[in-house]
Specification:
mainly alpha
Length: 503
């Protein structure tokens, strides 16, 4: 027998069903939220109206919160509340992430199509020297990839070292080529809608034919055994037809494998012998015209060198020991402190000089400055004559040295690292890969389109360039932010695949 609905008594004495069918009110939810029982009590018409308003307001607030969270989530991080705050626990190598991000920004400037006499002056041209920034990318990669491996090598944790080597080697191809493939896929989709027009890629007339062409291009581009010389040698660069700036990815993958093999081959050597082997390989790479590999190995050397730094003291000595030190070695401590201060000051001075020299060398003219002002004609004669690729390949002799000086200076002088640990710098570092791969798409879709028309309307002067540059960079950061979100999922996929397949 069906049980009847419980009834409430209205103001006029008639029975009113206690149900959401008549009033639209969930009395159980009201009682749970407000702690006020309603069953069996007398409800006035105003009470029913109040209850309905309460439920509608609650649902509206919940929907508003969800809508607000969604709207905030689709904004780039630099527009989100607190989006530019630095993480509370920065790693010791966090400054390298920011350096890589700013280097990617310089690459964006390098492709910005803004010619000005003042921008070609020494030191100022550094902010447009995209060629040298690629060399900085390779040094940072060598440092980051080897740091953890070298630390485990020093601690004689062979089993953990083998596990880390297997994990890094297994995931490296996915991390590089899957992300690069996604960037080329975005380029293909923009080509389909007519937003991008390259000389090397034409509209195939059908989306599926275009997709098949993209897959064919990716199969060719992702061949890890193909020639990786790239722009270092001027011609026959290995890149994607849908994204010409991906030429660094094959070189990045090959250099990563060299780092892993070196760490494995030299894990039984002492620190001194491993350092000698590293510098020997760097010298041979310059003789073999493989500067990009030398840059990776210089990053390995910097990582090895960073492990020589003493660990920070976590606790102060006891009062008895302090008193003993004061009584026995007060004078010796004072002398040692003075020598330490002089030594630290001297290292910082050398690091600053190296930074200035490195920045200056990054201003090297495109033709090596053979007919330019001094010292470029003299420096051009020091480039090995057996290097291939003409001036475009040989320019990396001094640019690679410049990149090494810059990263070494920052590693040697911690005060120089502080601006790179700021919140905005860390945000730029987080978007480094996205800035590098997405700026071309923004250039070909917005800068060559609407922003070009806006620049012409404003007069094509310096003010119009500055104004459109700000808009352009905001769009680049927005696109890079979205790409970074996808890139994080690609990295997570690699880790998931490792967990599912490793035994």
């Amino acid at each position: 027998m069906q049980q009847s609905q419980p009834l409430l008594t209205g103001e006029d004495g008639r029975d009113v069903e206690d149900s959401t069918v008549n009033t639209g009110i969930d009395y159980d939810l009201w009682q749970k939220d407000m702690g006020t029982p309603l069953r069996g009590s007398r409800i006035h018409g105003l009470q029913i109206l109040a209850l309905q308003c309460y439920q509608i307001t609650k649902h509206y607030i919940q929907d508003s919160i969800l809508t607000r969270r969604f709207l905030i989530s689709i904004l780039p991080q630099y527009l989100q509340p607190g989006g530019l705050k630095a993480p509370p626990d920065l790693r010791s190598t966090a400054y390298l992430d920011a350096l890589r991000g700013y280097a990617a920004w310089v690459v964006v400037n390098h492709h910005f199509y803004w010619t000005n006499h003042y921008l070609k002056l020494p030191f100022i041209d550094f902010f447009h020297s995209g060629r040298a920034m690629v060399d900085i990318f390779f040094i940072i990669s060598g440092y980051v990839l080897s740091h953890n491996l070298l630390q485990k090598t020093r601690e004689k944790r062979e089993q953990n070292l083998l596990k880390s080597l297997a994990s890094s080697t297994f995931r490296r191809y996915i991390r590089l080529y899957f992300s690069a493939g996604f960037a080329a896929l975005v380029s293909m989709l923009l080509t389909c809608v007519g937003a991008l027009k390259y000389d090397l890629v034409a509209w195939q007339g059908s989306f599926f034919v275009q997709l098949a062409d993209w897959l064919k291009d990716m199969l060719r581009f992702s061949n890890p055994f193909a020639d990786v010389k790239g722009y270092y040698y001027g011609q026959q660069t290995l890149n994607s037809r849908y994204h010409p700036y991906l030429w660094t990815i094959p070189a990045e993958f090959r250099g990563s494998m060299v780092v892993f093999v070196f760490c494995l081959a030299c894990c039984k050597l002492s620190t001194t012998h491993r350092t000698i082997a590293c510098w020997l390989l760097i010298a041979l790479c310059y003789l073999w015209d493989a500067a990009y590999v030398a840059l990776f190995m210089f990053g390995v050397h910097l990582a090895e060198r960073s492990l020589n730094k003493p660990a920070p003291e976590t606790s102060s000595p006891s009062p008895e020991i302090e008193q003993l030190q004061l009584e026995v070695g007060a004078h010796a401590e004072k002398v040692r402190w003075r020598r330490s201060r002089l030594g630290t000051g001297g290292r910082y001075l050398v690091a600053i000089i190296a930074l200035v020299v490195g920045v200056f060398l990054c201003s090297q003219p495109h033709n090596l400055g053979k007919k330019g002002p001094n010292p470029w004609p003299v420096l051009s004669k020091a480039v090995p004559s057996w290097w291939h690729g003409g001036d475009q390949g040989r320019e990396h002799f001094w640019l690679s040295i410049a990149a090494a000086l810059i990263v070494w200076a920052l590693e040697t002088c911690p005060p120089l690292q502080r601006p790179f640990n700021w919140g905005f710098s860390q945000y730029v570092g987080k978007l480094s890969f996205g800035l590098y791969v997405m700026h071309l798409l923004v250039v070909r879709s917005f800068w060559d389109g609407p922003l070009n028309q806006l620049r012409s309307w404003l007069g094509n002067g310096q003010k119009s360039y500055c104004f459109t540059y700000v808009i352009f960079m905001l769009l680049v950061f927005w696109a890079a932010d979205y790409f970074t979100r996808v890139d994080r999922h690609i990295i997570a996929f690699g880790r998931w695949l490792e967990r599912k397949t490793f035994t």
